[in-house]
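does this look right to u?? flavin mononucleotide version
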Amino acid sequence: MREGIGHQFQLETKYQREPYSPGALERQKKRERLKEKLVDRVIPLPAPDRENGWPLFRAMNTRRSVREYQKKPVSLEALSQVLWAAAGVTLKAGDFLLRTAPSAGALYPVDIYVFAREVVGLAPGLYHFVPANQSLRQRYEGDFSELLADAALNQDFLAEASFVLVFTAVFERTTWKYGARGFRYIYLDAGHVAQNASLAAVSLGLGSCPVAAFFDDEINSLLGVNPARESAIYLLAVGWPRP
Ligand SMILES: Cc1cc2nc3c(=O)[nH]c(=O)nc-3n(C[C@H](O)[C@H](O)[C@H](O)COP(=O)(O)O)c2cc1C
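got this back:
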């Protein structure tokens, strides 16, 4: 881990299991097994709707954290719409690709990964959202849902959601300019991104629940990121709400 108060903050606020906690070895083996199926495939997403949808105030008034989901797949269009709302490009301004959510210095430190479980036309697996061309890059194939829920302090609804977004922070994108203060900005950025996603979800009839309680190292290990550079900071479960 890099030095500095921001990185120290990350380190000291991590949730961690006790060393040698029960099931640790089994968990690690499951993770390794899933990670054997490495893929590198680009999946273009359907063009998002930039005009229509629910009125904003209705979406705000209706949004609730939903923790019970139906076993029903979500369309690729809906996933694309939620990702676009979270971090889609809305304007090219010189060298900058400005997005739906504001970002300190337009540096966009928050990346989005998708653990897809039930999305029409997407194999279950881990995907990385590429805002510049509204596409996904598949990383791994397999059902990560049990490991994901387990890594989030056994919040089982994460294994029932149709997909789970993981918001990561790529620290250096913001700290090269703002130093340690950049850590404040990164978390503010993530709030904007996640709120946009949850309002888009509700306006598509979907339910979502933000989750910040998780074992950082385990989610990072599922993602395959180096936490000195990039770390999971927030999750969002999405699926059809149970009536
Ligand atoms: C930063 C943050 C972290 C949260 N983490 C969790 C979580 O780990 N698990 C969970 O079930 N809900 C989590 N929530 C959802 C809150 O419990 C929920 O927003 C709150 O109870 C208000 O309900 P509402 O979202 O339906 O308005 C989190 C919310 C925020 C903003």
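The two ends are 45 Å apart (CA to CA). idk if thats expected tbh
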